[in-house]
Amino acid sequence: MRTGRLAHWQALPESHRALVFGRPPRMILPLIERAETIGLYHAVPGEVPTDRYAAHMLDMGKMIALPWTRSHEGPMTFRLWTGSEATLERGPWGIQPHAAMPEVIPDALFMPLVAFDSALNRLGQGGAHYDGWCAAHPRTRRIGLAWTVQQADHVPAEPHDMPLDAVITEQQVLLPQNERMLP
């Protein structure tokens, strides 16, 4: 799935990558409208880019938080991000907020993933960082960002796994109970 995701991303023209995920679709707004703090991620090659979502959220008056961890094994937290590159540093998994930035708990969280299914189960990178964080914060809305090619027939889920509240792809929005909505 990682190989397919990266190949799909590499095949997209740069202009298409930049335009597809400009702002959350309208049907997602009820999940985030009351959120004061929105969790995003700094995309690595292959993942859905979040730069324009961040700019849009800041324009809406939302605070932005990005994942932060001290080590590959360490627990993941979220720290505020101002939107400025000056408040970022390199961390164990890539770009993250400076350690001096305040730790926060996002009210809604846009997450990367490797695969998802129509039941909104999510397959992550395998480190259980997001799973652990979401289990400790079950009230946070969980929204996956993915390319359509990442949809699988079935993603294995353990009893403790929490399905997503929605998945947004470049072609559709999946909501609970197999509701599919076009953006």
Q: What does this entry look like structurally?
A:
The strands form 3 sheets. The chain has a 9-stranded mixed sheet with strand order 6-3-2-1-7-10-11-12-13. The protein has helices spanning 2-11, 14-20, 29-32, 51-59, 129-136; strands at 37-39, 63-68, 77-81, 88-91, 94-97, 103-104, 108-111, 115-116, 122-123, 141-145, 166-168, 173-175, 179-181. Strand 11 and strand 12 (173-175) form a beta hairpin. It has 183 residues and is an alpha/beta fold. It has a single domain (2-181), classed as Rossmann fold, CATH 3.40.50.10420. The radius of gyration is 15 Å and the shape is globular.
Highlighted features:
183 residues, two-stranded antiparallel ribbon, Rossmann fold, 5 helices, alpha/beta, globular
Order of helices and strands: HHHEHEEEEEEEEHEEEE
The poorly predicted ranges are none
Rg, please? 15 Å
Mean pLDDT: 88
- Enter the CATH topology name: Rossmann fold
CATH class: Alpha Beta
CATH superfamily caption: NagB/RpiA/CoA transferase-like
Number-wise, the strands total 13
Give the count of structural domains.
1
Taking the sheet with the most strands, its summary is: 9 strands, mixed
- Biggest sheet strand line-up: 6-3-2-1-7-10-11-12-13
Alpha plus pi helix count: 5
> What percentage of amino acids are in beta strands?
25-35%
Distance between the termini: 24 Å
Give the CATH architecture: 3-Layer(aba) Sandwich
Overall outline? globular
The assigned structural class equals: alpha/beta
Portion of residues within helices: 10-25%
